[in-house]
Amino acid sequence: MHKPDDHGSHPEREQIDTSVGFEQSDVKLTGILVFLISLGALVVVTGVLCYGIGKAMNTHMNREDGPDSKWTKTVDVRQLGNMPNNPELQNKVAELTQQFPTPRVQTDDGNQDVADLHARENLLLENYTWVDSAHTRVRIPIERAMELMAQHGIAVAPTSQLQAPMTGDDRPTVQAPLTDGFAPTAFEQEEAQAAAIEARQREESGK
């Protein structure tokens, strides 16, 4: 008879063969084979279903499109090779891009737009231009306007009767602006500096 253990049970000790080097009872080849066979069957069935569905869809589309003609002929575009560049077409695309309605997507951070705006403003401030299409009023350069103002003075508006401020209120004062116009941006200053350097180099090379 077996001697009962501490828990009161009488287990029979199993003799383990340690000569094989691994536990044989944990390996179940039957379950692995069943899983692999099921997986293979699932792949095959899925492939057959996909092929059948695709075939049915192509048949339905071909029935709706009608028989093939010269307009529906399949062409292998790889035989055409690389198409040559067309400068005329590229210029047309660039022209259409420039005519695209605003607001357009900026290709840079906006520095060029600000520079173009200041260039247009300088063009109006430094040249004679017509104000209206009837050519009855003309816009004069700002330097000439300042000369005329220095010669003839500025028309003074008649003084208006100002109401006395209420108790505790102060009369507002208008302070002169810090600048007499816009200040060039860093981008414009760099462009002007580069243009000055280029002009100096051309002068030195001409000598």
What features would you describe in this structure?
By secondary structure, the chain is mainly alpha-helical. Among the domains are: 31-63; 122-153, no CATH class. The protein is 46% helix and 2% strand. It contains five helices and two strands, in the order H-H-H-E-E-H-H. The chain has a two-stranded antiparallel ribbon. A hairpin with a 7-residue loop joins strand 1 (129-130) and strand 2 (138-139). The longest helix is centred in the first third of the chain and has 37 residues, at 29-65. The termini are far apart. The mean pLDDT is 77.
Summed up, what is this model?
This protein is an all-alpha fold. It has helices at residues 29-65, 87-98, 111-125, 142-152, 186-206; strands spanning 129-130, 138-139.
Give the class from helix and strand content and strand pairing. Answer: mainly alpha
Q: Tell me the major beta sheet.
A: 2 strands, antiparallel
Q: Report the uncertain regions.
A: none
Number of strands: 2
Order of helices and strands: HHHEEHH
Tell me the strand order in the biggest sheet. 1-2
Distance between the termini: 124 Å
Helical stretch tally: 5
* Amount of beta strand: under 5%
Seen as an oligomer or otherwise, the chain set is single chain
Which radius of gyration do the C-alpha atoms yield?
45 Å
Relative helix content: 40-55%
Average of pLDDT: 77
What best-fitting shape do the alpha-carbon axes yield? elongated
Give the helices and strands, then pairings.
Layout: H1 29-65, H2 87-98, H3 111-125, E1 129-130, E2 138-139, H4 142-152, H5 186-206
Antiparallel strand pairs: 1-2
